[in-house]
Write a structure and sequence with these properties.
Structural class: mainly alpha
Mean pLDDT: 87
Largest sheet: 3 strands, antiparallel
Helix content: 55-70%
Strand content: under 5%
């Protein structure tokens, strides 16, 4: 027997019965910056140790975000192509989207700290930029214990964030897949710059 919409929404994942397509675009960028960064900074354009540590860990998180996004998209497509009673691929997709979000936010935290910015605008509760909303999803996913204990989940939800046809949601924020894609694209541009001889300083993603 296949599960009903009610069963999916109340015992598996919030709004799961409405998930019918993969809105996450394919990433075709070749995310292989770490090797280039190591070779460039070791032999051609060395950086001071502290700057190198900030830059290297941003690049590492950029690669991690790209890898997690790809795995999430693959698992989401697998879920949509299997019978409704096979739900593990959905949670693999959710896990990897959570990892992707975490790597994005941690990467931009590194850049903010490196620039001396103690509280970047996107970390403020009032910020509604794509990065600000992504950060709220990150916090909600990270502090699942507080979300449950404080009754901050929808009554039928099993996780702090969930997947929809067009993006990712929590009780506090929504981020479209196209917006997440743009954050990743921007991270990729920065990683490219940091892995070359003459890196440029780039602005944060547009609001």
């Amino acid at each position: 027997m296949q599960p009903t919409d009610y069963f999916l929404n109340n015992f598996v994942a919030h709004k799961l019965s409405l998930l019918t397509e993969c809105g996450a675009r394919e990433l075709t960028i070749n995310a292989s910056w770490i090797s280039a960064f190591v070779l460039t900074r070791a032999f051609t354009a060395p950086l001071p140790q502290k700057n190198r540590a900030y830059a290297f860990n941003f690049v590492r998180r950029a690669e991690g975000a790209f890898s997690a996004y790809r795995q999430a998209r693959t698992a989401l497509i697998e879920y949509l192509e299997t019978p409704r009673n096979v739900v593990s691929p959905y949670f693999r997709a959710l896990l990897n989207f959570e990892v992707c979000i975490a790597q994005c936010c941690q990467g931009y935290e590194l850049l903010a700290t490196a620039s001396g910015e103690k509280t970047p605008q996107w970390k403020k509760k009032s910020d509604k930029s794509e990065l600000g909303r992504l950060y709220k999803l990150y916090v909600d996913s990270k502090h699942m214990d507080e979300m449950i204990d404080g009754g901050k989940l929808p009554m039928e939800a099993t996780a702090a964030i969930w997947i929809t046809n067009i993006g990712l949601e929590s009780n506090r924020a929504r981020v479209k897949f196209d917006e997440l894609f743009e954050v990743l694209r921007h991270m990729g541009e920065l990683a490219d710059q940091l892995s070359t001889l003459t890196p440029r300083t780039a602005a944060k993603p547009a609001s």
